[in-house]
Structure formats: structure tokens, C-alpha cells
Amino acid sequence: MKVRAAVLPINAGKFAVALNQDDAAEIGVSEGDRIRVIKSGKSVSAIVQIAFGLISRGKIGVYEEIAAELNLKDGDEVDIYPISRPSSVEFIRKKLSGKKYSREELYSIISDVVDGNLAEVELTAFVLGSYLVGMDFDEIEWMTKAMIDTGEAIEFEKGVVVDKHSIGGVPGNKVSLLIVPIIAASGLLIPKTASRAITSASGTADTMEVLADVNMSVEEIKEITLKTGGVIAWGGATNIAPADDKIIRVEYPLSIDPRPQLLASVMAKKGAVGARHVAIDIPAGNGTKISSVEEGRKLAGEFVELGRRLGLNVSCAITNGSQPVGRTVGPALEAWEALKTLEERKGSSSLIEKSLGIAGLLFEISGFAQDGYDRAKMIFESGKAHQKLLEIIQAQGSKGILKSDDIPIGEEKYVIESKFEGAVVDILNQRVVRLARLAGAPKDKGAGVYIHRKRGEVVKKGDPLITIYAETAWKLEKAIEYAMENPPIVVSGMILEKYPSFKVV
Amino acid sequence: MKVRAAVLPINAGKFAVALNQDDAAEIGVSEGDRIRVIKSGKSVSAIVQIAFGLISRGKIGVYEEIAAELNLKDGDEVDIYPISRPSSVEFIRKKLSGKKYSREELYSIISDVVDGNLAEVELTAFVLGSYLVGMDFDEIEWMTKAMIDTGEAIEFEKGVVVDKHSIGGVPGNKVSLLIVPIIAASGLLIPKTASRAITSASGTADTMEVLADVNMSVEEIKEITLKTGGVIAWGGATNIAPADDKIIRVEYPLSIDPRPQLLASVMAKKGAVGARHVAIDIPAGNGTKISSVEEGRKLAGEFVELGRRLGLNVSCAITNGSQPVGRTVGPALEAWEALKTLEERKGSSSLIEKSLGIAGLLFEISGFAQDGYDRAKMIFESGKAHQKLLEIIQAQGSKGILKSDDIPIGEEKYVIESKFEGAVVDILNQRVVRLARLAGAPKDKGAGVYIHRKRGEVVKKGDPLITIYAETAWKLEKAIEYAMENPPIVVSGMILEKYPSFKVV
């Protein structure tokens, strides 16, 4: 049936169209059924909604996602016909009844995920099937390969390509802004793609964006890596392992992270950028994704095994995730801390130790050096890493800020002081993140927190514990209100004060 | 924030609104987040979509479902504010990690299901949690009670109230059109609510609708039952156990029917209409939901136990579901067969035996008669059941058809003849249903199939096996094409002809 497009500039969150009820009846589709929408040879499958009145007969309401995909304008003619559920849905049902996926089935599912062919219910069933029924290593390997194959990839004809990834969960983790220039300064190549914050206060891409453009194509990533040795790009702007972004949309509202998806998502991204040696940062501790070192070890073993199957040399670092890394949380504050640390060649020991440790691990597993940590320290202290980051920023497209003190931080601020004399006994990651997000991070780049005292440090009554920064006064208010009710920093003695309702996590 | 409604007359399939991107940023919500929408004291929670341009600042695009719920017109002022995920989502996550629900948690989840407070991903997670993790009998009991309590209910001050339900899976199951008048003619009360077809070719409500109006409120159901002894109403038009309809929307695309939901859904509906004695029809056999009598027995035991916990006297009949009941499939054809059988007091033995058997079971468990089957047979053969059905039709609102031969059947038809001499060895339920649906059933009431020969019956070459009826020629074409590729009736000898690709199911 030929119909004319009426663009509905609304993000429906999926490939959806609205059909006039009579047109829908004529082609025999009901709400929730699927049709194929074709425009000049390009086509997508779309979920049908039924319209009464707004969309007249002979028209089709196309939401933003489809309009963008097919490049549709009002009045464009498209062809539509009903289609049945993709066979992927049968495969997903098989998993729900406890069966193992075949290689071909996983490829077909991941392709349909990428092409937007699965409805929300079906995609949720896929993710929950992984979560509740699980996958064995064959399936995880096949899924990872399917995620690589259904996206773009980079191949480096020369050079030793390494990469690092953090599974996340610890706030303030701006280590990539130190690790990438250290590695790049050594002559190895590190084409790092990073994510934006989903539940955190700043993703590495958000932090880097304070200093440089992070929206790059795979061609640009390759070109800049070859030129400067490294890059810090936003993975979401590329078409690398695009299945992952769609899967996250389901995981996020349920706050679940099925192990097979976690493994496949990380390794697909690393495999697709052509890395041969990969270091995985696994933050462990209260308030992170991995609660104990034992659990971290198990996950590390799985990463190494998956790497072996993909031909990647993987090594993991289980890191201390029990409190934020460094002293800042929020895009601008983190960019400031990272750049300042490189400029002054000193700073928060947790930030420097961790960055040098992971850079050193990459030196060791790639065969570049046996004394990896020392080599990383040398490059850091020589100032070469600082110069390299400035070089990378300019290659990516500088925002005009090349000095830490030029970075604009939110002008609204509030200092929380200690009401007691004592020592910091705990910093609660989840409260720190919530606080920074209420203040406006990651959308308001200048919003976030500065932590004056970390665990074990001594405070006197009236000493600053944390400073909240925001770009607008009302967000600062909301953040302060939250912090008063839910203190993110626990000074010894405080816990008893809130009996009986106080909970530490 | 106060905004003005712009009604989008589109069924979004959920409570959704479209916010201008700047307004969304101002109140701090992103796509997929939730807001509460308030109009004159009534409010709903809605999933946010982000609009660019179509919805200007200070406006909110409200889809059909919300416009209807809040009775909104263009320009109406509503109040909105961001809300967090309902705590039900936490409870659902608990189940995903293997825990047992509490009574309060299930009540809260079912309330949120009914109020449209759960996003599709979350509702899917609830259903898959039941399917994969399961529920024990406490949980099933609590869920059933929550489903009853979150909807309307009927209480009969006098009379013995009985009811029947089929778990479905066998085509042509028009037995309620015989059972209800037999029961009603005896003086017992049977306020039967029925469903429309979801995956079948005709639900009892679709079949009854050929003869009478089936859209009734609970007050009308009670009134007509008190007046005539029985009713056959569409449950979906009432507000009885409304959670069920929303849950089905998720089960249907995945073709799953978690046992806890199946049990709760049936028993909630029976409990809510005030029935004290309930007969459950469990069709078993190839191509139905229950593949063996053993499995049927297990399910029967579960129904009886759940009934005991709810104070309902439940008895189950495991019935032969290996081929269609009677000879017709499709709304008008089934209404025709039921009415014809009552008029002539004879007809297909499978239809009559099954109807009398279940009516008899109800007579026995309610203490009305010890020789239930014989009593049902007497009422059937006396013509009182026929008179009673006509009475019920008129009480519900007749469509002007009171004789079977006046029922309009699709005018396009095609007879499939046997190419062999032999005997019918199999009738494939799923193919029969697909055939009837391709011909237009259940939407085209006159579409369906008439089965000339059932299992064990002898055919000569050229004898009619099945006649396909349709309302439009192109749907008939599609049905014929399917039947040629996928013969629904297997005559002995045929199977060998299609080697190697022929599959019986």
C-alpha cells in the first residue's frame, strides 16, 4: 500500500508509526503488529500504533527515529506492507525454555536488535533470557562476534594496538585522561572509545568533551590514532557494536546488567577497534557493581577466557572501588582534576596510582616493557603525557581550553562542613553520584562535587567535607537538601546520631 | 509545571506523553522517564517521549490513552511533575534475583499494572519473572486476590452461582453457547464472562456477538443473570480483574503463558463474578496448550488448590483437544453450529458430549443433581436450552437473528477435496486456526472453516474435506494458498507423499 509520510517530530523510543484506523484495517494490522516501511529501496520494520483522526487515510505518521533512518519529509511517498514477527522471537522463546542459542540464532537476534526489528517486549525477553537462563561461553563468544560484525570496525595495518576499559561503578574515574596520553606518548596506539554517563555523574566521553570534540567517525578515530597515538572518542557517535546501545535501553530501567551482555559489550567494542592487548579495570567494593575481590576474580577469569576465544590478549585489574577515584565527580571538575594532575605531575594518589597501574599493565601485556608501572611513571613525570593530551585534544578539535584553570566550573556552590571532630570512615559512592546528578551532572558540565576529605583523613569540626557545584541555584538547592538527608561522607561517630532510621547504604 | 494539552489521537499502547525538549530539560526528565499528569484531581503516571518542534514550549502532547483517562481536550491545562520509578519495579527486580513476593508487594505490582504505572520493559520483566523464576501457591493466591480487589466484582444476594471456563487451545470450542442456557434453564445462575480471540479464530465473546450484544457493565451482567439465569458477556468490556488484559499484552507477542498468570487470571475472573462452583475445561492433546493428560492432571490439581484457598469449589474436566470441537471454526460458523444444534437437538457428537459433560459436572459439584450428565441431556433434548439461549440473546440485545439459517456466512468459499481414498488420520489444530485467520476470522465474522470429515472418518477421492469461507476474495486466496502448502487435514497415505520436507506439526 502506498501512503504519504506525516512526520511526527517525537522520539518514540523505537521504530514506530501511526496508521489511520481504516488503513490499518485494510492491510489487516492491529496495534502492536509490524509493517515494513520502504522508501527508495531503504526499509525498516516498524511497530504499528492506531490513529483516530490525526492521521487521515492514505497517510502514515512516522516518528523521529524512522524519519531520520529513512530520511523522510512530510508528503514523501512510502510503501508499506504487513510483516510477521522476525524468527528471532522464536529463538528468544527457545532460550526462555532453557535451550542454548546456536551461532546463527544469535547472529539473527543481534542483527534484528541493530535494525530495530524487535519490539520492546521482545528485546526485554532477550535480555532477561540472558539474565535468568544464562549463556555458556560458546554463546557469549558468538554474541560478541555478532555484535562486532553488525557494526563498523577499524583495522590498523601497523603498530601495536592496545585498549583499556572500565566496567564502571566507581565515581570520579577519570583515569583514561591520564592513561591514553601515557600510552600514546610511548609509541603504542590506543583508539579509546568511551561512553557517556547513563546512571553515573560523568562518563569518560562527557569528561573529555569539556576539552575536545568527542563525536568522531571510525575513520577519524583511526586517522587521529595513527597521527597522535591515541584518541578519546564517544563510542555512541560511531557505529561500533551498535547493538549495545539498544540493549542498554532495556537494562537501564530494570537496573540489571546480565553477565553475558556485560562481557560481550566490552569485548565487542575492544575487538572492533582492532585492539590486540586489552586491560580491563574491575572496580570492586561496596557500592560498585562487584562487591568483593572474589567476585572480581571470577569476572576477570571470564574476560580472559572470552578474550582467548576472540584472539585478544586480555588482562584485568581488580581495583579499589570503595570510594571515588581522585577528589572530583562531574564532567568539568573531572576534566580539571585530570588536566591539573598532568600539568603539575602530582595530585590525588588514588588517581595517579590507578592510572599508572593500568598503563603499566598495558605496557607489560603488550611486551613493550617488563617494568610497566615505572615506565608509565617516567612518562607521566617527564611531562610527555601532558604534552600528548594537549596534542590529542587539538587533533580531536579543542574547545579552546588548554589549561586546567581555564575550565569553567559551576558558579553556584555550597560547602558541607563536618559537624564533628573525627576521621572519615566512609564515602558512599551512590550518594556522591546522586548528589552530583541532582546538582545537574552530567548534563550541566560544570556541576559536580569536590571531595575535601577521603577515607581515613582527619577532620576538625567546621572543616569542609565536600563542595557541591551547580550551574543553577535551584539544582544546587535540591542537591543540598538531598545531602542533608543523606550524608555522602561519614565521619566517625555520626552513625549513632541517626538511630533508628539511618542506613549506611 | 503547568502546561496545556495537545491531544494526539493515537493509541500509543501505553500511558505516554510527548514533551517539548526544553520543557523536559527544565523539569529534568529524559526520554523514558516518568511524570505525573494531573487534571482536576485525577492523575496518571506517564512515560515521557521527547518532541522537537511538533509540541511547542508550554504544551504537552497527550496520546489517546491518557486523553481518555483524564478526559482531556486540546488546550486543557494540566499540572506535571517528574516522579521516580514506582517501588513495584524494585519488587520485580527482587523476583528476578530469585526471591518470593510478599502479599503487599504483589498487591502493589498488580495495582500499578492496572493503573498503567509500569513501562513495557517493567511489565515484561514481571511476566518473565513469573515464567522463569516462578511463584509458589502463596504468591499465586495473593496475586489472584490482588487481581480481584483491583477490579469490579459482583455479589449475588441469592441463588446458586456457578461458572465455567476453558483454558483454550482447541479450535471450534463453542460449548459455552450450549452450557450457559442448559445451566440457566435449570434455575442455577451462570454469569459467564468470556474473552475475544487473541491467537485463536474466535473467542466465545466473538461467537456470541454474532447473535447478541456482548458489551455489558457488571451491573447489566448481574441484572440479566438474575432475570434469565445466564449471560455470555465480553469480559473486556467490564472492569473485572482488569490486570489480566494488560498482562496479556505482554504474553501475546512472546507466546508465553506463565502458569501463575494462567491460574490467577482464570480464578480471579470466576471469583469476581461471585461464582461458588466452577468447572474448568482443560483441553489436552497435540496442538493444544496441554500436551498430555498427565500434564492436564497436574494443572487440574493446581486449579483445585487455588480454588480451595479462595473459597471456591473447583472441578476440572480434562477434555479431548486433539482436533476441533464440532465441525466449524470462526465466529459466524460457530454461532451457526451452536444454534443449529440447540434447534435440532442433535449435531456433532463432540460438541454435544462435551457441552453436556461440563454442564453435568456443574450440576454435580453444585449439589443440584447426582446424575449431572443425564439431567443436562434432558434439558438439552427438551428444547428448554434452545428457548433459554433465545431468551438470553434478547435480554443482552439481539442482533435480529434468532434462527441459525439466518446467520450470514462469508460468501466467498472454496472446497478442499481429498486427493486420496482413505481415512482422516489427523486434523492439525494450529493449521485449522491459521487457515481461518487468514480467511479473515475473527475480525470478519463470516470467515472460517467447515470441517467435513473428522478423525477416523472415511473419505473417497474427491470427497470434500474442508470448506473455507471468507468475506473478501483476496483473503480467501491467501487462505487457499496456505492450505495447499500446509494441509490441515491428513488423510492416511498422504504423509509419505511429501518426504523429505513434510512436517506433521
Automatic annotation (TrEMBL), chains A, B:
Domain named Pyrimidine nucleoside phosphorylase C-terminal: residues: 423-490
EC code: 2.4.2.57
Molecular function (Gene Ontology), one example: glycosyltransferase activity
Reaction(s) catalysed by this chain's protein: UMP + phosphate = alpha-D-ribose 1,5-bisphosphate + uracil; AMP + phosphate = alpha-D-ribose 1,5-bisphosphate + adenine; CMP + phosphate = cytosine + alpha-D-ribose 1,5-bisphosphate
Keywords: Glycosyltransferase, Transferase
Signal peptide: none
Primary enzyme class: transferase
Catalytic residue list: 257 (proton donor)
SUPFAM superfamilies per record: Nucleoside phosphorylase/phosphoribosyltransferase catalytic domain, Nucleoside phosphorylase/phosphoribosyltransferase N-terminal domain, Pyrimidine nucleoside phosphorylase C-terminal domain
Binding residues annotated for AMP, in chain numbering: 169, 195-200, 204, 265, 289
SMART domains registered for this protein in UniProt: PYNP_C (SM00941)
HAMAP family: AMP_phosphorylase
Family: Belongs to the thymidine/pyrimidine-nucleoside phosphorylase family. Type 2 subfamily.
Functional description taken from the UniProt entry: Catalyzes the conversion of AMP and phosphate to adenine and ribose 1,5-bisphosphate (R15P). Exhibits phosphorylase activity toward CMP and UMP in addition to AMP. Functions in an archaeal AMP degradation pathway, together with R15P isomerase and RubisCO.
Protein name: AMP phosphorylase
Organism from which the protein derives: Geoglobus acetivorans
Lineage: Archaea, Methanobacteriati, Methanobacteriota, Archaeoglobi, Archaeoglobales
